[in-house]
Amino acid sequence: MSSPTIFRAMCGVLMGDPSSPTLWNIFLSTFNLIHDPNDLDLLGIVISHLEHADDIALISRSSHGLQSHLKAFETYCHTNNLSISAGKSWVMVFGRLPSPLPTLYLAGEVLSYRDSVRYVGLQFAAHYTVKRDSAITAAGGIAGCDLIIGHRRLDPLIAKQLYSALIDCHLINGCEIAIDTDKHLLSMLEQVQLLFLRRMLGLSRRSMVAPLFTETGIMPIRIRRVILALRYLIYLLKLPPDHYAYLALQENNNLRTQGRKCWLSDLDWAITHLPSSTLSLPPLAQLSEQSVLQLIKSISHESDAHLQSEVDNSHRLALLHNRREPQKEGPAKYIARTLRHYLILIQNHDHRRTLTRLICGDMVPLTFRASSLRRERTPYLRQNKTQRDVGHANHHFIQNLPSISSFNV
User: How confident is the model at residue 366 (pLDDT cuts 50, 70, 90)?
Assistant: First the structure.
């Protein structure tokens, strides 16, 4: 009889290995800490430590409580013949930093402090900057591939698919937990999205913002992050009462009723500060799956209405006023935000880019003399300008081109 071979996992905990975390969690089920007055509790349930396989987090509200937990953990490891990697351990402080920083020990070594760490795949602290840089890297990879292979002629439909697969995942990362309450941090993500959409449509850096979304069908990242946070709220509402996340939601509700900052109050702030928003987050007692879904629908509708108002109120976007989108079956109908037909049907890249720039108001008079000015002229001067240049306004010029007018622009 041959001797059994040694089992070796071919993938790590976060890559789908089911044995490693399960066996470790069973082994560490005997690990307990003595209750400390500074332990964190959720509705009376104490949570002083978290484990996922051999990734362990000890939690306390004071340095003395944390040092006590570190000593107890060291004793447990010594009793169960486990070695401690003190060099891979660190301390992170949430909230106001004490002065001076207390010195904490584990296995005789001084633990270092960090302001940015990753635990079980979740990035703490400098999250926006990290994900902004990741999104820029992904966008640069797409642009580089387009430059080398596509010669800057990447099809908008393919570009949208690449955006959804490679860039959007970074821009929405952690949005369920980290609610956007800092406009500066949010703008870092918005600028990455705007930069890619302008390159996707072939528009300049100073082009108007609204057509970037109405012509591609992509939702503004600010709106998308709020909607995903609301969908996470639906998940929390459906959890059983003994689930830790459900207990945290109830504690959040207590903090919100007391007027303190918390996840629910931040989510309410983010909703009320959306562009042209008239909505807010109701109290937790009035929330249900259906009510949150209706709130999501209202937010999406208000966002599309805001984009359409930006288009309707701009003289540079006169070609997009009262526009109808052709359908495969039936008459053309109004759609506020979708990938437009001319971006798909026009195969010639130069023709598509020129038409897109004209429609989106990104052509200056030096490029196309009948295009709209950056600043609105008086009606008399504007009428003289269009009649002097081509005899008609922009939309009259397009309607007289058979190959373009067939697209019902």
Answer: very low
